[in-house]
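Action item from last week, closing it out:
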Amino acid sequence: MRYIISFLSIIFFVACKNTPSVYWKPYDETAELQANQTHENPRMQFRLIQSKLLDKNEIWAPFEKALNSFGNDTYQALKPLIIEQDIPTLQAQIQQGLLTYEQLVLFYLYRIRKFESNPNTTLHAILALNPKVIEQAVEKDRQQQKNQHPIYGMPILLKDNINTQDMPTTAGAAYLQDHITENDAFVVSQLKAKGALILGKVNLSEWAYYFCDGCPLGYSAVGGQTLNPYGRKLFETGGSSSGSGVAVAANYAVAAIGSETSGSILSPSGHNSVVGCKPTIGLISRTGIVPISSTLDTAGPMTKTVVDNAILIDAMKAKDIADPITSKGPDSQVDYILASQNRSFTGFRLGAIKSLVDADSLYRKAINTLRINGAEVIEYEPPNTELTGFMSLLNAEMKTDLPNYFNSQANSALFGNDVQSVIDFNQQDSVLRMPYGQTRLEGVVAEELTDDELQSLVDRLNHAATSFFNAPIDIHNLDAILSLNNYHAAYAAAAFYPCLTVPMGYTLQGEPKNLTFVAPSFQEQKLYSLGAAFESLTRYRELPKGYE
């Protein structure tokens, strides 16, 4: 009997040891949901907030001992060294011995658990954390060398449609909840090769917001409803890279990687007062990223500052034989980081859209700032150009591109390898897996464009979009167009034009807005010069209240 009791005691001990401590407790959100049913924006009338699929305590369980040893006193002491600091400053402090890469990682892990375990501050931004990241940071401290890339040792979060070997890649979907790939996405390999630390995966609008029509931005079955730190349940997060924008805004990592087909980096960057770059198609590889459109998809960095954004682009760019469009990219010697040191608008000619100048006070103020500081700004009305058939392009390409991803870059243990399989799976439990419906996926299956029709559509949209920008650029000899948030994202996408969006202030209600610079293909260097000059003059970005 004594031996039986001892054996049971051992079992109990092991079970307790493997059970995560409870920091997050699901709560009754009925009153919260009811309060939001009167929100003026129908997309903010949530049906749920908390995830029904994710146990948050499992996210930080691997770090419990380390975080308890780290403690609140250390966290508070390190805050001035880390919060809102750019990468060059962090690297300088590490070189001076004021900080280590291990401490930097522990700080972010502690901060994530601190805010994400509290129902009053959680943003539902984090889906997974890299269980090896602390030991990897220790190794970065040990291996430091001269002339290492600025991204070395920096903890980076990834939108969860980007493949990683050591964490699931879910696209926010119940269909992919346990999906772990054999290989990292190409951009992840690039970041790791230059020494970056992958901190974890963040929430997103499910299937990159090509899932449900009119549903909340930032919702996914896996992660629940991402919330905006500048106004939880008040302001939209933007999408589809919702978690990337929210996590950077709340200082959960040095930076994050998002993806965009049309507006999915620009939108959450603008809504969360962070810097976002939608690169030219061909600058950044798409291999290993859950797709919508092989014509329009791209990854891109989301950061607190322009210099950090340039550092991320520099670390990510490379030619990828598995994504032949990257062969069209610029010479590898283009110095984006140097461009981000610019502080002058002298010699730049910029186009401002007159209707936005008249309608938006923050945009108008930004235009005046540019003029006062040396830029020549020409106001104009854009041509009346329609992008008819844009959704048909996305439908037709996702119908082919998602199965291609399933067959070549996904785990083979899926329920099926096409969009219809996802639809069928969701219908087995519509309340849990598709509370807002799945009309966009259904539209994908229904699309019947032939290959020739699709190519004709791509060409027509590209011609219309380039004309939208090139007409004023050519007439007025402009270096770039000035837009607002993601207002002209579809045109930039179809034209293959890059965009850089930079904080330009807050409304009277406290909602962030961004000024967006648009330039012709592969002119990211010029965009970083413009964005850096604007940022240096204005410094509009503020840490969200309650996340100090």
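Closing note: DSSP finds 22 helices and 13 strands in the chain.
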